[in-house]
Amino acid sequence: MSFLFKELRSVKFKDLLSDIKSVKGEKSSFSVLFDVIKSIKKYGCSVKEYFLYKFYLLSDIEKGTFVTKSINEDIIKKYNNVEDSSVFNDNVVFYQVFKSYVKRVFIDLRLVSFKEFKEFIIDKDKIVSKCINSDSYEVINIDRDKLKNEYNVLKIYNSIMKNEEFLVSNYIEFSDSYKIVSFLGEDGKVNVLCSDKFVSDELKSYLSDISNVLKSVRYVEWNIGVSKDGFVLNGGKIVPSLYENIQSSGKNQGCLIEYSKYIDIKGE
Question: Which end of the chain has fewer surrounding CB within 10 Å, N or C?
Fold first, then answer.
């Protein structure tokens, strides 16, 4: 019941009415509102998810196949150690912990001098500057001839500092990329819960390696690139959201059936 009150308190009533009115069909606004409240209470969905997954068109059985906000939160709470999960909230720490899989040389501009920054970029054609606690990043082209003029180096440095993208690394070219939500079993075996593309046995083996680096964080959404030298770890999220994209594709079945094969879903 507390999730219901928490969710309703977070919603602007004006926006909710607008969403209800946008629903086309034979249902009245009152019946849709009643179904929203029922779905939040019974399935643990957010108001956003209700309309994203078009719950107003689905049967109770179909709604019960969806991974919802409440279920996602319960899995995170049960299987991801809070203290160790902080690794995923700081990109510098993440790069350090997963260094052999990130395959990048990098510096933290908060800890190095301007001279050290210049020395780092002097032999590079491209660099990547990334925020410490978000996915925001920028690819910066480097004209090495212009670096002879220190003013041009200073412009690059000041631009990065202004955007607070303190994590600077070498650029790696990708031919493909994957987003994968995985769950690490107690036996150390990794299970793919959902992905944006087909996961090969080779990629699953790589996924197993990175998942076992921090075994106390078992439920993760990974961002993996493919370079000429193999797989490269781009990042990870301990609040997975990929299932939202997959479940909003218009199908009448969610990801919960696949999740339930490997995870003890509370209240299923």
Answer: N
Nearest alpha carbon to residue 228 among 172, 157, 183: 172
Location of structure tokens 């978000």? 134
The three state secondary structure string of 24-62 is: CCCCCHHHHHHHHHHHHHHHCCCHHHHHHCCHHHCCHHH
Question: 266 phi and psi, to 5 degrees?
Answer: -65, 125
Residue-wise burial string across 59-89, b where 16 or more C-beta atoms lie within 10 A, e elsewhere: eeeebebbbbbbbbebbbeebbeeeebebbe
pLDDT, one tens digit per residue, over 215-242 is 999 999 999 999 999 999 999 999 999 9
Rama region for 79: left / alpha / beta (φ>0; ψ in -120 to 50; rest): alpha
Sequence-ordered list of residues with C-beta below 8 angstroms from that of 39, at least 6 positions apart, any chain? 45, 50, 55, 63
The CATH classification of domain 65-101+173-268, taken from the options 3.20.20.70, 3.30.470.20, 3.80.30.20, 2.40.50.100: 3.30.470.20
* pTM as predicted: 0.90
Which pLDDT score, from 0 to 100, does residue 159 have?
94
Q: What pLDDT, on the 0 to 100 scale, is given for residue 26?
A: 67
| Angle, alpha carbons 37-41-46 (nearest 5°) | 70
Q: How many residues are listed for the chain in this entry?
A: 268
The secondary structure of the chain in percent helix, strand, coil, rounded to multiples of 5, reads 45, 20, 35
Tell me which residue has tokens 């075994």. Answer: 215
Q: Are residues 231 and 203 in contact, defined by beta-carbon separation less than 8 angstroms?
A: yes
